[in-house]
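Take one protein record:
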Amino acid sequence: MGLTKVWLATLSDGLLRADQVVGLTAHATPALTGKPPRWLFDATIRTAAGSGRGDGWDVGILHRTLIQTPSEPAGAPEALARLLARLDGEDAAGLITAVADGGAGARPASMVRFRFHPFEDDAGHTGDA
């Protein structure tokens, strides 16, 4: 993937360069007392993460949460994968943000939409950050 100029906004970890993403997953968190479970839509990064304990070192894959939803964000991994593939073919530069659209009914829908904000939108910018 070329995507070195495309960035993903994470929920709480800042920006993630899209060419570092090797997987997209959704999973439910455990329910806490008095609170229902939530769904996390994560990007898996090609960097291993580890932590040490007295009895050894534990290594796992690194995830960054892009959005949290009240129910399963069905279709979100596929939608973001399609967007990334399209942007890779266009040699795009910009920022992708995830937005959850709620629905009507007893259980809120978790339709996740991805918005691409090209850096060309900053055309009038002087270059100062």
About this structure: The longest strand covers residues 39-53. The beta strands are 6-9, 15-17, 21-28, 39-53, 56-69, 94-101, 111-118. The mean pLDDT is 85. Helices lie at 76-90.
